[in-house]
């Protein structure tokens, strides 16, 4: 029997021979980085906390993690080492997937929350009301017409603000985009642009007489 192959050299530092059967990419080190490093006595993994350096360390840990973990910590056997590293990899995958799902949920909530605020705003409601009251717009789109989630920006502070929105609208015949540009002064909105674009046709909704009751000009 070859004693060199069976000797447990773990925890002996840089001079330790890393068994061939455990060499390779370490997913636990790659996915859990500095947390894995603390658990495996690989303190160089704390460089993950240093901005910019951490980008390279992700891949360094994946490539060198197995070697460092074997040399820096005492393990009962190769099998023990492999079993523990599989657990690290498993939890790394679980945490990575959970983080992705939570990020997607948060982004979705944020998107619909902001879109909901936009859809309840005066510029959005005014644009749809002007469109509904415009015969040319209704003829081009076909009734009924539904407004979608807007894109753009809007801010108001103490009655002062500005809005730049692009609102997708869909009718029974065609779809188009409402373009809204306006400013608010003392809570009153005035629109520099209220325009519907359908198949390259521009329909000026600002030409309509401004509705009463604070709709704006």
Give a verbal description of the structure:
By secondary structure, the chain is of the alpha+beta class. It folds into 2 domains: 23-115, no CATH class; 120-204. It has 6 helices and 6 strands, in the order H-H-H-H-H-H-E-E-E-E-E-E. Strand 4 (175-185) and strand 5 form a beta hairpin. Helix 2 packs across helix 4. The radius of gyration is 31 Å and the shape is elongated. The termini are far apart.
Please tag this protein with its features.
single chain, 217 residues, alpha+beta, six-stranded antiparallel beta sheet, 6 helices, 45% helix, 21% strand
In short:
The chain has 217 residues and is an alpha+beta fold. The chain has two domains: 23-115, no CATH class; 120-204.
